[in-house]
Specification:
With 382 residues, the chain is an alpha/beta fold. The chain has 3 domains: 3-110, no CATH class; 143-200, Sun protein, domain 3 (Alpha-Beta Plaits); 209-381, Rossmann fold. It is built from 16 helices and 11 strands. The strands form 2 sheets. A 7-stranded mixed beta sheet has the order 7-6-5-8-9-11-10, sandwiched between helices. Helix 1 (3-18) packs across helix 3 (39-54) and helix 15 (304-322) runs parallel beside helix 16. It is globular. The protein binds S-adenosylmethionine.
């Protein structure tokens, strides 16, 4: 596909998304209907669509309309390109610009790309950093790997990745975290990944897992285990711990046995946890407001009712797991959100209902100081 044909296709896909189709579904439908497109085209389309969703309102302001076409005109202007050179109407290029599109003047100050209804809560939670973090959410997120010490040292993992042409950078924040700097698309086929030397995991949850109290022999319950990212990180950190994984959705746990085998980890799936344990991890369902770089569609789809529903679910999960923490044990409450209602307010409500817990550690990470937005409250049961 020519660059102009890609812009035309991205505009069509974005129109579907603006009409309510989830981004992944709209991209999949386009791929299925466009057998002529190669993997390079599909990747480029994805980048165009996700890039436009991250900066939806500012690109619409630059392009003159909140439509797929407006967003793509805005995208070209943001890149310093003249959209008239792409919107030519020739071959598969989009139709030429109208007089209104040609003469459109963008406002002096561009929108911050936050949903209007959410801005007060965002600012309230993030204070002086709110605008900078909103801007960070409009950038593409880096890909982070977690080195699995059961399989390799960081140096060995770096060498194995290099065999596949994958380049990485270390961070002083965590010895076992590596940021991919080149050839991330080669990861899935690399020996380093297939043999479990590295796992995909954002930096912030890696830091959170590294901060948890964990000793050999400890019983640990990952109550909202999903794909098992936190279980695997904890099993890798302390192979002598007894890891148990639970999730309300059995389907979500289906990948865990294969991932654990690849990582050399032993994790027991439990349907109905009842025994008290030393550490409960509650990585609860949340708005994902800290991960909007990766899933920008969610930023615009979230409603106040959704948020309220999530806050209620989180409180129910916390109430359920409170009884599973042994005296002297810990409860690690985690979200990939930066919003107060899901984080500090949620914890405050929990402490009122369960005064046997006290907070011993609290961390709110953001792209300004770590990876995705991520919250950890570690509470001790006295
Ligand atoms: C943020 S995701 C967990 C991600 C996972 N910990 C990881 O690192 O890959 C939240 C998970 O909570 C699960 N969940 C939702 N309601 C739940 C409940 N009432 N009890 C247990 N798990 C629940 C969801 O199925 C989902 O897998």
């Amino acid at each position: 596909m020519t660059p102009a044909a890609r812009i035309a296709a991205a505009a069509d896909i974005l129109d579907r998304i603006l009409d309510g189709t989830p981004a992944e579904a709209a991209l999949l439908r386009w791929s299925r209907a466009s057998r002529f497109a190669g993997s390079g085209d599909r990747a480029a389309l994805r980048d165009l669509v996700f890039g436009a969703l991250r900066r939806r309102d500012s690109l619409a302001a630059l392009g003159g309309a909140l439509t797929g076409r407006g967003l793509m005109i805005g995208h070209l202007r943001a890149e310093g390109l003249d959209p008239a050179t792409v919107f030519t109407g020739q071959a598969h290029a989009p139709a030429p610009l109208s007089d209104a599109e040609l003469s459109h003047e963008a406002p002096a100050t561009l929108p911050d790309d936050l949903p209007d209804w959410l801005r007060p809560a965002w600012t309230n939670a993030l204070g002086d950093d709110a605008a900078q973090i909103a801007r960070a959410m409009t950038e593409r997120a880096p890909v982070w790997l977690r080195v699995n010490p059961v399989r390799a040292t960081p140096d060995q993992a770096i060498d194995a990745l290099a065999e596949a042409g994958i380049e990485v950078a270390r961070t002083e924040l965590l010895a076992t975290a590596l940021r991919i700097t080149a050839n991330e698309r080669k990861l899935a086929q690399s020996r380093a990944y297939k043999d479990g030397l590295v796992e995909l995991q954002d930096l912030s949850p890696q830091i959170a897992c590294a901060l948890l109290p964990l000793n050999s022999g400890d019983k640990v319950l990952d109550f909202c285990a999903g794909g098992g990212g936190k279980s695997l990180a904890l099993a890798a950190r302390e192979p002598g711990a007894q890891l148990m994984a639970h999730d309300a959705s059995a389907a979500r746990l289906s990948d865990l046995p294969a991932r654990a085998a690849r990582a050399g980890a032993s994790i027991r799936v439990v349907d109905d946890p009842r025994d008290k344990v030393d550490l409960v991890v509650a990585d609860v369902p949340c708005s994902g407001s800290g991960t909007w770089r990766r899933g920008p569609d969610a930023k615009w789809r979230l409603t106040a009712d959704d948020l309220q529903g999530l806050v209620e679910t989180q409180a129910r999960i916390l109430d359920r797991v409170a009884g599973l923490v042994a005296p002297g044990g810990h409860l690690a409450y985690m979200t990939c959100s930066v919003l107060g209602a899901e984080n500090d307010d949620q914890v405050a409500g929990f402490l009122q209902r369960h005064p046997q817990f006290t907070v011993v550690m609290r961390r709110l990470m953001t792209p300004l100081d770590a990876g995705d937005g991520f919250f950890l409250a570690l509470m001790k049961c006295v």
